[in-house]
Structures are given as C-alpha cells and as structure tokens.
Amino acid sequence: MILIVDNQSSFIKKFKRQFLSEQDFDYVFFDHNQPITLSVKSRVSGIILSGGRGNPYEPLNLTTNFVAIMNYNVPIIGFCLGHEIIAAAYQGRIKKLDKYHQKKETIRLTQDDPIFAGLNTQEVSLVKRHSYHVSELPDDFISIGESDTTPNEIIRHKDKPIYGFQAHPEVSGGQGLLMVRNFLGMCGVV
Q1: For residue 180, pLDDT beyond 70
Q2: What percentage of the chain carries pLDDT values higher than 70?
C-alpha cells in the first residue's frame, strides 16, 4: 500500500483522479494534520508527500508528514512542499524565492539515477508552482537535477530511496509520470 499525505494540493487530487484511480495497487490518503491510523497489519510500501501552500516552517500543521518520514523505512517521494518537508526533516534549509513561480520549467538531470530510467534525455519539462526552494541540502542528500530557479530541483538521499522534486511530476505528463512509475517500482507496487 502507498501512504499519501495530502498537504492541501489541488495537484494531488488531480493525480488521484487521473492516475491513481486506474492503478492496481492499494493506497490511502491522510490529511497533513490527521493522525496516521493504520492497522498494525497494514504494510506500507512507499510514501508520497504532496505539494501544498506555505512552507515547512509556517504554522500549517505538517506533523503527519514528519511522522511518516521518521516512522516508515520505505521509499519516499515529495513533490513541491513535500520536497521542502523532506529537506527540513533532514536539517536542510528552505528559502523564499524573489517571486512566485507558476510555469513549466526545464530541469537538467545531473546524475544517473533509477528514478530517471527510461527517459533517454538529460532534460525534462515539469510543471512548477512554488514560492520557496531548498537553498541548502541536508548532509545526507545530493542534487540530481537542477533548473534556472534552483540547483536543488531534484534531490535524493545518498543511501535510501528518498526523493524530493521541487516541481510536480505527478501532473506534468509523460516524462513526469514515468518518474513517478519508477518510484512506484521501487516501492514494489508496479
């Protein structure tokens, strides 16, 4: 089962309607401020942290995200705010951008990685909608994708399958969904 933490993102709702509803694996949604109430028999195979408004330091209650990150030893992927939450959880730094970004942007893939399997390109175009970015990586992370907006566009834990995307691959069409499928493959559900 995939555990999805919804941080009030309209994109994760679209992803649920247009992608998840057609898949053959189980998933469960929890709100960002809702306790994770799963049976001890539940087997979580991976975690998705959605985008949303704000940033990890604002009063929005994001406890469920941190509980999920720290209590499940499974692959994790974060989109936008989820990406920033992962960085903050591992002691990275978030910084406000000069202006709000709302566009598709070209992201340069700077490292080979299983999340990029099947892309056959060094650049992808992904939807972005954000005001913050990861300005300083946590010690245990590396950048595997960069853009004109941020050098930490796509990050990965050095030893674990934990990924953060500043953009929204879940609603960016074929290339984005291929990376999401690759992540789900790491979780063993596709």
Answers
A1: yes
A2: 98
**Domain range holding 71?**
2-187
pTM: predicted TM-score of the whole model, two decimal places: 0.95
Confidence label for 85 from pLDDT (cuts 50, 70 and 90)? very high
The CATH number of residue 144's host domain is 3.40.50.880
Residue 178 backbone dihedrals phi, psi, to 5 degrees: -60, -45
Specify the number of domains making up the chain.
1
Alpha helices in the chain (DSSP H): 10-18, 63-71, 81-89, 174-187
Q: Is 187 a catalytic residue?
A: no
Q: Of these residues, 83, 101, 133, 170, which one is catalytic?
A: 170
- Separation in Å, CA 103 to CA 3, 5, 26, 109, 163: 28, 24, 32, 18, 22
Task: Determine whether 157 is an active site residue.
Answer: no
Of 80, 72, 58, which Cα lies nearest the Cα of 11? 80
- The catalytic position among 32, 80, 101, 130 is 80
